[in-house]
Specification:
Elements (H helix, E strand, L loop, with lengths): L1 H15 L1 E9 L3 H12 L4 E4 L7 H5 L19 H4 L27 H14 L4 E2 L4 E8 L7 E7 L4 E9 L5 E2 L11 E2 L14 E5 L3 H10 L5 E6 L6 H4 L11 H7 L5 E4 L5 E5 L5 E5 L18 H4 L11 E4 L3 E2 L36 E3 L17 H20 L5 E5 L3 H11 L1 H5 L4 E7 L5 E9 L6 H5 L7 E7 L31 E7 L5 H5 L12 E4 L11 H16 L8 H10 L5 H5 L11 H9 L18 H12 L2 H15 L1
Parallel strand pairs: 1-2, 1-6, 2-3, 6-16, 8-14, 9-10, 9-14, 10-11
Antiparallel strand pairs: 4-5, 5-6, 7-15, 12-13, 17-19, 18-19, 18-20, 20-21, 21-22
Helix pairs in contact: 2-10, 16-20
Subunit structure: Interacts with SEL1L. May interact with OS9 and DNAJC10. Interacts with TXNDC16.
Keywords: Endoplasmic reticulum, FAD, Flavoprotein, Glycoprotein, Oxidoreductase, Signal
GO molecular function, one term: monooxygenase activity
Length: 675
Amino acid sequence: LGLALCASSLCVASSTASLYHDYCVIGAGPAGLQAAYFLQEAGRDYVVFERSHAPGSFFALYPRHRKLISINKWHTGKSNSEFNLRHDWNSLLSHDRRLLFRRYSRDFFPDADAMVRYLEDFASLLKLRVQYNTAIVHVTLERDEQAWNGHYFLLTDQDRQNYKCSSLLVATGMWVPNVVNFPGSEYVEGYETVSTNPEDFAGQTVLILGRGNSAFETAENILGVTNFIHMVSRSRVRLSWATHYVGDLRAINNGLLDTYQLKSLDGLLEGDLEDLAIVKDKKGKLHITLRFYLENRNTSAGIDSITLPQDELDNFATRAPYDRVIRCLGWKFDFSIYNRSLRLMPGKGNKIKYPQIKPSYESRGTRGLFVLGTASHSVDFRKSAGGFIHGFRYTTRAVHRLLENRHHGVPWPSTVYPITQLTNSIIKRVNEASGLYQMFTVLADIILLRENATAFEYLEEYPVGILAELEIQTGRKAPNGLFVIVMEYGRNFSGADKDVFYYNRAVGEAQHAWQSNFLHPVIYYYKHLPTEREMRLQPPDWPLPRPDAIHHIVEDFLTDWTAPNAHILPLRRFLENCLSTDLRNFFAESCFLFAFTRQKLPPSCQQGYARTQGLLGGERLRRHAVEAGLLEDYTLTDFSGDRPSDSYKGSQDQLLRDHVILVRPLQHLVHAKDE
């Protein structure tokens, strides 16, 4: 009996013991797998919990009609893999070239089943540590001063197994349907369960609640078989090409706009859904009325005893009865599993469906809890692409870099270059970087200047919302000023009511670059790192505080910012004005001349010629420079009143061949000046 009691107590203890990991990731969707990849590459202790038997379970059901609206562009005319990610909205970031989405579908708008296969391969080929069939049902805190953040996160699954972790990454996405309750809402079908067979709607009259892509996707599927479709929502339709927000209505789904504007029976209405009411008649038809007509009335008494709007206004827009009403109102975050101790609260206003987080993607209520993926979209809602794979693959990487610095002392990755490479470095990044391009106004490249502006440190894709915390968050110092590079649309070019096709909508001249409308690079210069107060008081609709200087690189029809006169020259002059230096590259002969005529050599001469570095010239290169006006033609100089002799010509050729003759006197001159 004693042995039996002992064994039973051990079983109970084992079931309640907590399994520890440094990092716990909830959800094996795209964001969870992306986080797992970076943690695994860094050699960290982590686990991913997935309630389904496979990753990406959301895509196994949604979108219901199986066509994704994230583009899969096969050909760009370029072989640069970083550039091509600008037009690949489905691939996750990894070192494995097999895991590019183009290998899973050739369709420009792929089928959702291809995404399911892709995510399964991403997890298996990279051997990510995903624990399937594990539904986390409760999350709470355990205070401990020895923990990374002053507490541990305690997670419990459906089998009452407990897990403990130091940092919690929530990547569960948005999967709880938005439901509006009003009288008669029990007659409404949900997007998540409605039939996808168009024949089930043949000859029917349909009302759709909602005006996002799921609503128009549903309408597109049944457009050709219904009597007519009406769509009602509290806000006007927002077209993605006008708002430049990929979450708004995409062209692939907007067939209903054609039939509405061309008067083919279908139509759009605006109204608050909470003011509606639905009454069902004896034939099963659904009548739309307003809530206040039903006040103090018994709806079960029958439709004949209820006043309908058309009884008072005989041309009421929705007076015709409907056969079906479909709810397509999107999704919201599931807060139910989080204990109040975590203080994970809903946002405010139009962000109420998202949890409240900081620009660092960390919960406002609990240190060490980060929200990734679609659920983190409150940081850039209706501004950028952070709610979609082609956006949050970069924000997830940014969160990983923040955690590496905070918990493991690994500074934000950076590269140090001589100041002569400043213009080239910026031009290279704005022409190929995909993170800057997709997460415009949200992620920025940071250039930290070294003392005396002789060199700079380049940090890629840092969240601009925490710029004031840069030194703490990255482990890098910024005592000598910095440049911040972001991509922006024009200030007044985006909006639901904007005409983005108006005549002269684009700017082509460098002097008007500040008026550019389409996506273009903007460089902010700060003499000192902005403070928290300056970040809070930044101008409306600006991604950053007012800088000491700002430069717009003029928009380009080909998004190719390499034109020498329109793009590179104005940028170089802006940088030179900020740094009070000359960033041009000079030939050795010019550097030799500057050594005798200037108090300070240009950086390219200091870092190249004065150190016996640089390209070795020749007669052909010198002649080209002379013809281009870059060098004086000293061979034509007549010092004696006559043309140069052949011996003089020979000495000039020898001078070009033997650069040491020029270098050594300059070195002696520099040493003499130092002494």
